[in-house]
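Following up on my earlier message about uridine-diphosphate-N-acetylglucosamine. Here are the inputs again, as you asked, copied directly from the submission form:
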Amino acid sequence: MNKYVLVTGGAGYIGSHTVVALLQQGYTPVIADDFRNANKIVLAGLRSILGHDPLLYPIDICDKQALTALFDKYTFEGVIHFAAYKAVGESVDKPLEYYQNNLVGLINVLSLLQSHQVKNFVFSSSCTVYGEPKGEKEVSETTPKQLPESPYGYTKWMGEQIIADFHRSAPEIKLMNLRYFNPVGAHPSALIGEFPIGKPNNLLPFVTQTAIGKYPHLTIFGNDYPTRDGSCIRDYIHVQDLAEAHVAALDFLSKQQEGLLEAVNIGTGTGTSVLEIVAAFERVTGLTLPHVIGPRRQGDVIEIYANATKGEQLLGWKARLGIEDALRDAWAWEQHLAAL
Ligand code: UD1
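Thanks, got it. Here's what our run produced:
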């Protein structure tokens, strides 16, 4: 019998890698994605990797009627909910669109879980819920959350709050917030990867697009922070590891008899600075990456990385790949795009 899993936003960056991982582990993913922030190239990539077209419904998850029809059609083993806007700067300019899309979408999915007796749910949360860690830079799931800096951050923070309140009203459902650190890299086949629309906001796509010649140089947002080399430190997690974390989360939830709500950090446990990323990229590719030091970016967290032990203890999951794997794969993907 097919174990159907609804993957909202399954044509996106993390979603598409998770679709592959789910299929490899015997699940049948059903993608709901209206391609507003995804690209058909990823679909072609998925087709090549899987050897067939994935089940795909081009619906807006804020369209409750369309989403209900999907829950009527399939008996889902679980739902992995990615579909959301994710650009911090844009969220400041378009707060209502962010709250509308990210929160209404989540509420629709949760209410359908309940009405259709779907028991397992995984939410794309973010380390943004920790804000700038006070004191210790390694954060665990018990590190107190802080109010976010942007509407985007609030949608993740409020998403977790909505899920906590939902848990009290529907204690039979098993719920997991995966708090991603910084997803990077691409599938090792280079057939799927991150597809930023317009000028990238995140570091890695800006690095690879600079290396391919789309931008004259990378600007490093500040080198006067109180860190080992003055640039900000993050925990960069390979998207393949991240995808596997979702399968591990779903496997874990499926095995539980009782409802629950857990949050799990998905990171490597190691922090890497922006300057270290530049050096590693040059080492891995043999290229010189033009870069200049610019001013600090407003709202940037100085240093944060995961305590990743809960993921290992609870889910039996841990990151296998390192930053050099991620940079190599991201670069291969950028070259694949350039050759299309
Ligand atoms: C940002 C968000 C985070 C969100 C994530 C979604 C902030 C403060 N945080 O994470 O909430 O979950 O995006 O994708 O905006 N950098 C440069 N030059 C560049 C681009 C980035 O130096 O051209 C630096 C940044 O200053 C930062 C690091 O690279 O130190 C990573 O930046 P980015 O990829 O934007 O991720 P976050 O800021 O960690």
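One observation from looking it over: The CA atoms of residues 235 and 271 lie 5 Å apart. Hope that helps, and feel free to reply on this thread.
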